[in-house]
Specification:
- Helices cover 45% and strands 18% of the residues.
- By secondary structure, it is of the alpha/beta class.
- Helix 1 crosses helix 2, helix 7 runs antiparallel to helix 14 and helix 14 runs antiparallel to helix 15.
- The chain binds guanosine-5'-diphosphate.
- Guanosine-5'-diphosphate binds next to helix 9.
């Protein structure tokens, strides 16, 4: 069943030369369009009469002339990606030839698809939830294996199921509440007040469980803004390069070489670090370096993770001590990195005091490449080890997190209202608001702006 009158077409494979190109046609006239621009190679019956979901070899036609040969598949509604009648053509993957086939579909009555329009139709025709559509968008944008796993089929299905369970559970509890309000004398409510309160609290706990996956999901999806800081020459650039696994920053033994910020996206297992190497934060009269130092300060304030590097082979300097005081004011997770452990070590007392002042510290050598302890610590701090990325339901979207947090609070207050002996109407009002927040979280009821913003990330043909 389709909600759309138009039939759309687009090339779904990336632009450029390739072995094959895939052209998708979707909408009420998809089969009519296909019959006009595709002729089966064998047999008399038209393509639209051929078996569904079976490859049909044939010829692509423009103005009745054969322009290419290839395959066509027919997916009758509702068993297609969009839920509409859909045809997929595969022709040769030349730029001109794939466009010629696309033009032939336009000449036969199709109109050009907008960005993400196939997936948008799949959502609006009820084939996929907005959560799944959002995950598909993530998959297309993915730059790390963690992001691929998060946007993959298994993961997005689990997340949709988790939202469905919350939704169905709450609708059941609400209907019992409605019955007790509308027919107070008749005892039609299927559940006692106590059972409804317990049910609401159980749902609140389920929502909380999902909310607790957000730190992991967000660290994978959006990445962890990470800053490497420390006085000049402690080994910041060396550590940066090691984490980037290539020579991205200039490493020299002249203090103050890294004059500006260098930023790079780095995959650390499933996690993504948005890594910034900073100039040392120190007083300087050099104008250019001053700008770098200012930017370093701002980056530190905005970071979620700070890798504070100290040279373990030399005594702490005033500049180091100044940094320590600054680190204590930050909201970010700070990891004290004692570098140059391959060299003879300086007196340990002051370093012991330093590491005792912060919850997380590691010893490493950026020179010999020993950063395993550091990467393991970051993974423990930002990814919940109990979760299997790609298999468990993991929340990663800030919008969903906000709406689900509200739903959780409202579920708890609805349960409290019942426990405190308030009228069923009070509990009902909170439970209804919880349902609205839940619908917003799982995309059943979102504004057009939100839908537009999700699909704006898609490319034409998806
Ligand atoms: P930055 O100014 O803090 O970015 O420091 P660099 O990364 O440029 O390093 C300064 C100097 O220390 C360079 O000569 C590096 O090769 C050296 N260095 C960095 N890390 C280590 C380490 O772990 N061990 C040793 N022995 N030298 C290091």
């Amino acid at each position: 069943m389709s909600n759309f009158a138009s039939t759309i077409a687009a090339i779904s494979t990336p632009p450029g030369k390739g072995g094959v190109a895939l052209i998708r046609v979707s909408g009420p006239d998809a089969f009519k369009v296909a019959d006009k621009c595709f002729r089966p190679a064998v047999g008399e019956t038209q393509f639209s009469q051929r078996a569904a979901r079976t490859a049909v070899r044939g010829y692509f036609l423009a103005d009745g002339t054969v322009i290419d040969d290839g395959l066509a598949f027919r997916f009758p509604s509702p068993h297609s990606y969009t839920g509409e009648d859909t045809v997929e053509f595969t022709c040769h993957g030349g730029i001109l030839i794939s466009h010629a086939v696309l033009e032939a579909t336009f000449a036969a009555g199709a109109t050009p698809a907008g960005a993400g329009e196939f997936t948008r139709r799949a959502y609006l025709n009820g084939r996929i939830s907005l959560t799944e559509a959002d995950a598909v968008g993530q998959l297309l944008e993915a730059t790390s294996m963690g992001q691929v796993k998060l946007g993959g089929y298994e993961s997005r299905t689990r997340l949709s199921e988790a939202f469905d369970r919350l939704h169905t559970g709450l609708v059941t509890l609400l209907s019992s509440l409605y019955a007790s309000i509308d027919y107070p004398e008749e005892d039609l409510a299927s559940l006692t007040d106590e059972e409804v309160a317990d049910g609401l609290l159980a749902l609140s706990a389920d929502a909380d469980k999902l909310l607790r996956t957000y730190k992991t999901g967000h660290s994978i999806r959006a990445g962890i803004p990470t800053v490497i800081c420390g006085r000049p020459n402690v080994g910041k650039s060396s550590l940066y390069n090691l984490l980037c696994r290539e020579e991205a920053a200039i490493v020299t033994d002249v203090a103050g070489t890294t004059r500006d910020l260098i930023e790079r996206t780095v995959s650390l297992g499933d996690l993504t670090l948005l890594l910034t190497d900073t100039a040392g934060i120190r007083e300087t009269s050099d104008k250019v370096e001053k700008i770098g130092v200012e930017r370093s300060r701002a980056a530190l304030e905005n970071a979620s993770l700070v890798l504070a590097v100290f040279d373990r082979s030399a005594s702490l300097t005033d500049e180091d001590r100044e940094l320590v005081e600054r680190l204590k004011t930050l909201s970010a997770t700070v990891i004290i990195c004692l570098n140059k452990t391959d060299l003879p070590q300086a007196d340990s007392d002051e370093f012991d005091r330093l590491t005792n002042a912060f919850p997380h510290s590691v010893s490493l050598s950026a020179k010999t490449g020993d950063t395993e302890t550091l990467t393991r610590l970051i993974t423990t701090l930002f990814a919940d080890g109990a979760l299997t990325v790609g298999q468990d339901a993991i929340l990663s979207d800030a919008r969903q997190f906000g709406a689900l947090s509200r739903a959780k609070e409202l579920l708890t207050s609805a349960a409290d209202a019942i426990r405190q002996g308030m009228t069923a109407e009070v509990a009902c009002s909170d439970a209804e608001l919880a349902l609205a927040a839940l619908s917003e979280a799982d995309g059943r009821a979102v504004s057009e702006e939100v839908v537009n913003s999700i699909f704006s990330h898609f490319c034409v043909g998806k």
